[in-house]
Amino acid sequence: MQHRTVADLMTHTVVSARPGTTFKDIARLLAEHDITAVPVIDTGGRPLGVVSEGDLLRKEAGQPDPAGLLLEPRPTSAERARAEATTAEGLMSAPAVTARSEWSVIEAARVMHDHGVKRLPVVDEADRLVGVVSRSDLLRVFLRRDQAIREEIEHEILSATLGEPPSAVGLEVTDGRVTLTGTLARSSLVPVLVRLCRSVDGVVDVEHDLGAELDDVPARART
User: 0.90 exceeded by the pTM?
Assistant: First the structure.
């Protein structure tokens, strides 16, 4: 099976900033290009960090309330330093959490989740910036047509991988939800088929009511 990689989904033309890029220039970049963050790169094109809208808003959040109705914030020294920063070097979240272009959607999604970030600068073997992948980019795999999912399961999983005729399995795909019915040659193939279907790009869920002509699962494996 051919899974889409970060290289297939990422934005290749990247708007970036340098450590000395000013607050206003960063805000201008975000507005002009309709983006929510920019990676900050060094002279060699390697990501140092990322400046997001949230990083810029930190400055406003740290200002006293003009009406005097809100309590004064009590930031830590590190938070105060970032709120008072005027260039990308001081504003950015660092170090940059990056991805590789050959990563799968699952790998990129897990890194985003683990680090609590919405996008990842993508780097090459020399750690130079080559793209940016966002959460919305990763979600594009779920826009895949049901017919394309069905064809992959029939040809690449049932026929090529498991050696089962597609006619042996009733297969329905609706809005990314796969339903499997029918009878396979061996009972040990049932969990394999379900697992492989779950790994197909664009599949949201898999339900099955599958039987087998031969029960080849040892009794101890079923307990």
Answer: no
